[in-house]
User: What shape does this take?
Amino acid sequence: MLKNTLKKLQTGIIALFVVGLSIVCTGCFTQSIVIGSGAAGAQEETAQTWFLVYGLANLSQTNIPAMAKGANNYTVTFQRTFVDGLINYLLLSGLAGPETVTVRR
Assistant: This one.
């Protein structure tokens, strides 16, 4: 009887993990902002911004003008990638999580 209970508990925990992982990993998004006439070249810089409690507080900030290096025309892309979502899930699903920021000039 104890073996059956432990087996059911193990199966439930695995199912909960798989469902939680699938929910978090489907939350990928991309948002692009064009400054001036947009990126003309292929130069880009990427950084991560970290958030606490579903984005309510910043742990770090990305300095976008510094990443643009004085360019007047560039494109900024904010993206939650699969890896970002996985990190978010592993860090207690929203307690802390990253977002990838790319500046293309």
